[in-house]
Design the sequence.
């Protein structure tokens, strides 16, 4: 058990290191795009990208999760290579068909589904990205299924975030192109670059081979079919707020909302790190019948994800107005969105990777049931609240759907496996966060200084109080060793990158 826990810890640490590198890039990008292009230009781009995201998921046919569940169970290397080639081919063909259909009906799509014919040029320019992103997703999934986390970290956490920021600055400041092309052209550049890199790695590691006729080809399609629907529902749930804001309000509000979300998702980076590293290990442990080991890893890792995320949430709660002021006064209405979405992300991570556990232990339909319920609730609340409450209403709808999704997924997992991550230490964690937040909030009210100075001071004070309480109340010897191993890996990954 110690070896598998250590392996998950090392993989999580590698992804955590990547997130530590990527989050500053994403944070700075949010500030830069707001100040250089404004909310309306950015909002138009995000509105169309959010709409097309559903078709990227549709092209994936659920196989991005299916390959992670099936590949570890293949007995021979040739069967693994054949299966990998099969799913890549299926997704390549599917994405071309989906993109072609969108081109044929692009006028109708812009008029009826985007509710703005002026967005037709952007739509036409972005449709080919469906093929690029679909291939990128499945190639990354094959890498994860083979335990190659480093490549996933490089693409997701280093190459794309850094390229996106650098190219934005080059186009806007270097070439003085302050319009949609400063977002669209870089989108193509880093997406194409990602695929070239991943294809080179596939060839190096010999992950692809001749496609053979095996029963597993049919089995993975049957297994992935519920994941296709749950994936489409999931991406709808994730993007429906941005889509409905653009449809019911305007692109400017989408831009403000998106920047707030980019900040808010900082609270989820530890959870994403765990999910990415834990999913292949779940499948491996489940196939080997090591349920107690899986449960122990789930409990320990979920607790520490909660600790990290509450650290970030408390800072966001106190400094929401100051953080949005970094982007510009135009974006100040996004402060409430930042707090509401951050709270939803905390609730999302507090139950741990329950969705991944349900999928990798052979119950993908649970994810479908959960997301279907959540989609109905999310669409209903958005339709009800956006016209009256604007982007704040959209944030509340998203938070509610996130809460409902994880409660239902957790109950389904517990019913099947009878495991949960909670003990009395969670009460101490929550109390520590509330105490640190209360003290920091009172100090914030008294600090009559420039908002940049206030941000730095409050971050330092909150981290000191919260970190001291964690070290005093929460950490035990086993977790100290696990953290030490993760820190060593972090240092190694940081030096390598």
Sequence:
């Amino acid at each position: 058990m110690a070896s598998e826990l250590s392996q998950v810890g090392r993989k999580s640490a590698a992804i955590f290191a990547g997130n530590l590198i990527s989050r500053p890039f994403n944070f700075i990008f949010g500030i830069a795009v707001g100040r250089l292009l404004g909310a309306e230009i950015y909002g138009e781009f995000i509105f169309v990208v959010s709409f097309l995201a559903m078709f990227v998921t549709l092209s994936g046919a659920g196989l991005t999760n299916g390959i992670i569940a099936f590949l570890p169970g293949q007995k021979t290397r040739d069967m693994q290579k054949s299966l990998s080639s099969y799913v890549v081919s299926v997704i390549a063909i599917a994405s071309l068909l989906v993109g072609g259909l969108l081109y044929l009906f692009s006028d109708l799509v812009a008029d009826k589904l985007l509710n703005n014919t002026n967005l037709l040029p952007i739509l036409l320019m972005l449709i080919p990205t469906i093929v690029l992103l679909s291939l990128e997703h499945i190639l990354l999934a094959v890498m994860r299924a083979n335990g190659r986390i480093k490549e996933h970290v490089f693409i997701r956490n280093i190459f794309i975030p850094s390229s996106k920021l650098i190219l934005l600055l080059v186009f806007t400041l270097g070439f003085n192109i302050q319009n949609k092309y400063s977002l669209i052209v870089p989108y193509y550049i880093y997406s194409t670059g990602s695929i070239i890199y991943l294809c080179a790695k596939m060839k190096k590691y010999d992950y692809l081979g001749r496609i053979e006729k095996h029963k597993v080809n049919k089995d993975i399609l049957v297994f992935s079919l519920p994941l296709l629907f749950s994936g489409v529902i999931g991406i709808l749930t994730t993007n429906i707020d941005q889509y409905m804001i653009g449809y019911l309000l305007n692109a400017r509000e989408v831009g403000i909302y998106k920047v707030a979300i980019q900040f808010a998702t900082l609270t989820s980076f530890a959870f994403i790190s765990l999910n990415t590293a834990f999913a292949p290990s779940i499948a491996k442990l489940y196939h080997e019948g090591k349920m107690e080991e899986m449960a122990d890893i789930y409990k320990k890792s979920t607790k520490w994800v909660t600790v990290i995320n509450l650290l970030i949430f408390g800072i966001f709660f106190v400094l929401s107005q100051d953080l949005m002021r970094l982007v510009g006064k135009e974006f100040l209405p996004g402060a409430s969105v930042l707090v509401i979405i951050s709270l939803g992300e905390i609730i999302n991570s507090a139950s741990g990777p329950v969705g991944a556990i349900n999928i990798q232990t052979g119950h993908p339909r649970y994810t479908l049931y959960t997301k279907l319920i959540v989609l109905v609730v999310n669409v209903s609340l958005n339709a009800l609240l956006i016209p009256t409450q604007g982007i704040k209403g959209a944030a509340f709808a998203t938070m509610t759907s996130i809460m409902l999704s994880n409660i239902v997924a957790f109950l389904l997992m517990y019913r099947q496996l009878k495991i949960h991550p909670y003990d009395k230490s969670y009460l101490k964690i929550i109390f520590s966060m509330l105490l640190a937040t209360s003290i920091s909030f009172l100090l914030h009210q008294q600090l009559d200084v420039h908002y940049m100075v206030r941000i730095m001071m409050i971050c330092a004070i909150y981290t000191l109080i919260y970190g001291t309480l964690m070290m005093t109340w929460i950490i035990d010897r086993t977790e100290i060793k696990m953290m030490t191993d993760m820190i060593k890996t972090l240092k190694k990954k940081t030096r390598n990158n």
Observations:
- The chain has a mean pLDDT of 83.
